[in-house]
Amino acid sequence: xxxxRLTAAQAMVRWxxxxxxxxxxxxxxxxxxxxxxxxxxxxxxxxxxxxxxxPTWRGQNEQTMAHAAIAYAKTKxxxxxxxxxxxxxxxxxxxxxxxxxxxxxxxxxxxxxxxVFAHRRxxxxxxxxxxxxxxxxxxxxxxxxxxxxxxxxxxxxxxxxCLPRAMAVMTDPAECGPVCLAFCQxxxxxxxxxxxxxxxxxxxxxxxxxxxxxxxxxxxxxxxAAQAPxxxxxxxxxxxxxxxxxxxxxxxxNIPFVETQAGKGGxxxxxxxxxxxxxxxxxDCANQICAAxxxxxxxxxxxxxxxxxxxxxxxxxxxxxxxxxILPFDAxxxxxxxxxxxxxxxxxxxxxALGDFRAPPFDAAPRDVWQQMVKQVTSAPxxxxxxxxxxxxxxxxxxxxAVQRVASKDTIVMCAAGTMPGALQVxxxxxxxxxxxxxxxxxxxxxLAGAMGIALAAPDKEVICFVGDxxxxxxxxxxxxxxxxxxxxxxxxxxxxGYGCINRLQIECGGAEFNNLYQNCNIxxxxxxxxxxxARAMGAMAQKVSNLAELEAAIIAxxxxxxxxxxxxxxxxxxxxxxxxxxxxxxxxxxxxxxAGDRDQLVTARARYEAQAAQARLV
Length: 619
Hints:
By secondary structure, the protein is of the alpha/beta class. The protein is built from 24 helices and 23 strands. The radius of gyration is 25 Å and the shape is globular.
């Protein structure tokens, strides 16, 4: 057998560069890297050597460059992914939050943190975490609960087994998620005679498992017997590329559908059977139809508490739950009748089993009422909002309305945490493919890096990132990366001077306003942060607008912001009112309220909590 002598790091990057999608592209598009001791000498040399066959990109923070990789994979519907490498110690642990985000959202990303010396001669090395009871533990063991597959490479030949396992996980439709290959730094530099056949290019096909025929028949019978079925479309619809199949199914069988945060935008908001989003941040019409349904059919959803109103939403006394999901773990939740299989195949087979069946008529009027309400709360009021303190500041809903008025079918709006995810879910009228929300982990700081990842994955789209001042302050440095790489996207930065979303939740739960808005924090003076100057300092175009008309004009202008012949990111800042919510929709969410306290507001909130919690259904 012919051999090729390479270092383990050289072998890893060569092998990764040869793993292909069905369309002939690299599955791992490239590697985000911040070098330090633990990866600079081994992986750094190997990545430099392989060049454009597996390109390397420099980020500003390990967590946020991983967020960019995750957003890229989500936008690519899990058909392509990226790798992220760091040094040992804080570089590695910075990525643990991003790994958890990918794990919750079932998204592929390859984490390659540097690790300690396998031979242990210099122990303890700089930044090494020592476990007093287990000599095999390192800081990278923190990845174990937040990845689908973990391995520690302590011998060069370990690559022969761990790399195919890693790819098998990232390309498996059910087990898909992040992978961590902790790479001991001395092993990265060790040479080994690898079989030449190990580097044969390989195509990885995304399987489409079909459901069991008996299960299809059982679900079809439940649908035929239902008087008011409804479909909850989750992110699995999009990952299975089943958007058109779902639209065909609901049209043929007269079944209304609603979309979760992950599923929103799978089909255009204007589809006549699309009743918007359900649950805590849901539309009134969606929640009404879910509450009255005697058969709730989940497709590619994990039934997160926001979707189910903490399991108080489905109020029909005899309601049944069906879960169509590629993963048995999700298909069997809450005593559901599971239909395990690819969403596209499952819906196709289920439609064939139903034949010409059409569900009974339902009342579509609430949908029209809802759309009028959306128009009302997002419309621009007559005042100018010119000067905070003299005129009313716009609400988040009104900011959304301004962006909506200038958006096109090629616009992708994105967000992750704070007020805007809920407001966008309930109010944004998404074109097909025009919505990207990280709301599985609701991770502050995902927004700007995520916008960059989306723009890399979909360069022909306009990416608009909604971010609050709180999330912007947590993680903003990848703006500099986007400027360096000339990756354009538009940031709408809503400044409500603190954490307005959680401040409202604090009030709702009977608490005093405390430690969220700057005005209620233990500080000597409220900060006056010049977000425009900050963004400009990183090379972005930036401006502050004083009213909604200026916001609309600025978004249009951002489409043509060019420096040295190439577009760059734009940041548009607008002051907003932290007090009002969306003014529309919504449902109860289980956030435990203290049983004891001396505030009247707390007593009232606890009574309200107990009344709502009593309606939750365990199965």
